[in-house]
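WARN retry 2 of 3 for item q-0093 after timeout on previous attempt; input resubmitted unchanged.
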Amino acid sequence: MKKFSLLIIVMIFSLILAACGSNGTSAEADGASNEKKKLKIATEANYAPFVFLDQGKMTGFDVDFMNAVASEANYEIELVNVGWDPLFVEVKDKLSDLGICAITINDEREQTYDFSVPYYLSTNEILVPKSSDIKSAADLKGKVVAVLGGTTGQEAVEGILGKNHKDIKKFDNNNLAILEMLNGGADAVVADNAVVQEYAKNNPDKNLIVIKDEEGFEKEFYGLMFPKGSDLKADFDVAVTEVLENGTYAKIYEEWFGAEPDVETILAEQK
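OK item q-0093 returned
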């Protein structure tokens, strides 16, 4: 009788231990399933006001937008400053999961990369000294123009002066292009509207003005850039659209640019 009782006690104790182990494993599994996947995102942190360093911390419109979209899509992110040209290599070779830095969606890039639905409406504009006689894109003919190499700004100027024209000076970032103009090495800088507007606004002592030419420069749309065939595109397409529609995008845009975004035009371009 004692042996039988002891056997029952051992069996009951074993069942209790098994139940405890089962509950612990289930909790761990539930925790693992709820854990956000962390993504590496390549960028260029010398592209104010989209991505730039402020006291060593990466900030900018694209940074805030990317954080909002990643949160909506339930991903954690790590933004890595790799530079403009390396950004494209990082994404193409899948060293990073995606890239963001005011990247225009165009036919040439879509041959190599996948893009999210558009999230930003842009156009190129011209930065010149106030004393300049340049008043439009057509006036760039016969002038020396500084650009960020590998951008649609370069393409826009090449459309006016000619491909690889000797009067087009290409630089690794927009700040160097602007510095070239300030030092007398170029007559103008062509870059994204927000970039040249931000520089002129923040540097009133330089006596610079921004030339808009809607006929000379086409509208452009930015997108998140993925390796070809990325499974992430579908999640982020949904998240980008949601952030645009729920008011989060407008709030971020107004904080950085002090104006209301044309959300309707951006959403219409997604269809």
